[in-house]
Amino acid sequence: MASTTRRCVVCGSQVAAAAGRRGKGDRPTGGRPAKYCSNACRQRAFRARTAVVSAPVEPSEGEWQAERAEPEEPRTAPYGPPPGGELPGALDRFVGRAEELTGLRTLLRSSRLLTLIGPGGCGKSRLALELVGGSRSGRKGEARLVELDLLREGAGLPQYVAAVLGVAERDGAPESGVTESLVRALSVPGLLLVLDNCEHLAEECAELAALLLRRCPGLRIVATSREALRVPGEVVFRVGELTLPAAGGAPGDVAEALRSDAVRLFVERARACAPGFELTAGSADSAATAATAATPATSGTASTAGTAGHVDLVAEICRRLDGLPLAIELAARRVAGLPLGQILAGLDDQLGLLTDGSRVGPARHRELAAAIEWSHRLLDPAEQAVFRRVSVLVGGFDIAGARAVCAAGDIEPDAVLRLLCALEAKSLLVRVPGDGGRYASPPAPQDGSAYEGPHASAYGSPYGSPYAGAEGERARFRQLSPIRAYGLRRLEASGELYEVRKRALDWLADLTRPSTDMASVGVVPPELLAEQENLAAAVACTAVDAAVEADVSDASDASGGSRGSDVADASGGSDVADSGDRHLRLVVAMARVRREQDQLTACRELLTTALARVPRSRHRADALALAVRVACQQADCAEGLRLAEEAVRVARGNDDPAALADALDARAVALVCEREFGAAVAVYRECLKITRTLGRPLATAVCLHRLAWGLHHVGAVAEAQELMAECLPVLRELGTPQHRNAAGHTAGALHLAAGELAAAEEAFAEVLRQAPPDSFHAMYPVEGLAIVAAERGELRRALRLFAAAAAVRERIGMRPEAEWRRWVGATVERARRGLDASAAGTAEADGQLLRGRRLIAYALRELRPENGRQDGEAGACPLTERELQVAELVAEGLTNRRIGARLSLSPRTVATHLDHIRDKLGLRSRTKIALWVAARARTAGSAAGSAVGTTGSAAGGPARSAAPPSGRRPSAADGEVP
User: Fold this and answer.
1) What would the pLDDT profile of 958-977 be if each residue is shown by its tens digit?
2) Residues 112/51, Cβ–Cβ less than 8 Å
3) How far is CA 917 from CA 303, 886, 913, 924, in A?
4) pTM (predicted TM-score)
């Protein structure tokens, strides 16, 4: 049968007019006529349709302006999800709830706020994690988890969420609050945030969720709670119990029983502790009798009941537990040691006891309590004692904490670890995976400091945090919230609550011994970071006692009494005998943790409240000194100076030289913040006299460095260099990386001021080799090396380094202090004037592409441009000649196949070159590659203007001469507090 023909719309070849399916007699049965003769022509047509979008030949001026605006996007949206709060990996298999997950996935795709509600123990949190982990955002690493069960007061919700997510306050702006930082960090398209356990903070969570959803268009939130948040647009999903086997079903039907999620969960968890456990059929009565008569498994053996269980007994256990996952898991864990009949009998006794004892609240809560009570009764007396005593540690605990709290009476310290492992095996404790606790400390900024300056030892922690760098993992445990609540009730009933709580407070206070050594001001011990939740609870616990003590003290003063002798007496006994002293010590420790996490507003509020609550304490000077530094970080210099004066006055009255040295250092910080450099130098001199008498080499070296830095501000360069020569060897041997880098930067700035360019370059290079790439601390030596290059006349190199540093600062959201910014800006303007506009613009455009290890290698003169051109030649770029050819052909609109034909390369090789181009330029699309090529080809205007826009922030103002009005060259640390 002859068929009509058509011609291919691409190549003109003849094709059949009817290309659809054919039936009997080869007759067409339908389908569109073919337009192409082959798949190859179909692909060519597709590329032709999309060519105008994917490969523009010459971008218009409007497109160029839009592309220039793209680097400004990070000011409103981050480059990726926040660093903290990643979803934890599951340690066991998720069982059941297939229908719920299917429905939830549909709801999640169509709603921005999905709330899972249900009773405690029904598995809301695990279901939410399974849902989010299997979503597209979870698979791409764009989901974050914030667990709220340990937060007691809603006022601190934004700060708590920011701390868990690792979101830091930026630019010292307390008035904007942490909420703006959260909005910026969560403005990531496709980001999915899980707020777990919202019921006790329903109103605050509703307000925060509404704000974030309104301000972050691409954000979705999954919340778990016992009640709805009642936010407009909220979709509520009620999480019920696991499906149960039908009560009237055929007895002994294993297949039918395994259709229920509850039975399958029981079997899965039973097999985890008793491998080989299987359901069996047969007579339920005979199975129950055999199970009751069976003896528990001993070590290395398994009882009959431990490896086989009658299906009807398992089904009845699940029914009596009402299908609650937590209760089922607790019961299943006992299979290794008890026959099923005894498990079922134990549940009968416990459920009856708790129902009779309390008729208020949902029945499910009583049943969950029954499971916990029954598990508790299976413990021996020593295990019961440890179980109830560790319940005072709300944030989990390690072995040392458990020993401090539990080792008393019949419990020996050496037995605590064995007892903890026994409780963990019986599901009354949970082993926390990882290196520190339920919440590892939210990651600090990559540079480790929030302050805008290279000498941040008085402000933030070293970027090499001792917590992050601790070797090995510390075994850590916690109790689930309902189990811990039950443990607290048992502890109160035993009459041990007061003594156990006092031991816990003493242990935490011992961890928080105040350090008045200037060298450790910005270093937070890893144990404090791990115990931050316990610290917060201890602060709240001791606040009441401290307030009462303050009232008693005021009454004593009003009656003519004196408390000064009491404070002195307290110092001779226990370190924590005085409630006010203990409270303030704990507050200082908690504030240090908040400061380490860059939660400056929360830190300052904590200190302010405690200082008002405890007007007199031997730790008041420590708290005041820390408050001074935080106030200066937030640019509240006047308040910082007021607090510093009080800190010095209190420290002198306490007759504590170390505390006085710390207070004087804080006072110098405030004076520098007020730009009173001469007064700050005088204070540093007094501080140095004190530290020399203490016999602390590192503290003395740190004070020498800070005095040298202050002398640089007043133009005493020669004396400052003498002091640096004395302190640098000690800092290199004993100091932290932060101490060494800050001192090296000061040394480089002093060499620059003295005109010693080779020595300055060596000092800056030493700092750069130690600093992490693209970090805050790495940018100061990069800029210092740029100034050295400019002084030597290497203007293109200088502009590349300036532009690279400015791009990194813009990306991480950290600016240098004003004086350093002005110095850098003046040098940039001078370098630009020394080159023609085209060469300057090209150099800065090239510099913006340098980052990471390539930037460090280029700054250290260890990297030549890959195109073989030297720094002094125009047009240097990170691409090889072949890669540049490929990029230019992409800009002409050619496909990979056409580029390969032009250059005699295979399409696969062209694709490899494009991957290298994208990695080196940091560009993800062919459009942006084309615009980059066009920018290099243009003269002056656009490229120079774009570079000026990026680096202009580093200038800090209009062009000016390199030297300040005083006639001295400004220090890299001007305006900076060590």
Assistant:
1) 233 333 333 333 333 333 33
2) no
3) 65, 9, 6, 9
4) 0.63
